Amino acid sequence: MAISDEIQQLRIDCGWDQTDTPAILAKSVFAEAGELLECFIQTEEAPDWDAVKSEVADVLMYAMSICIDQGWDAEEVIREKFADVRRRYL
Question: Pick from 26, 50, 30: which is nearest to 39 by CA?
Answer without folding.
Answer: 50
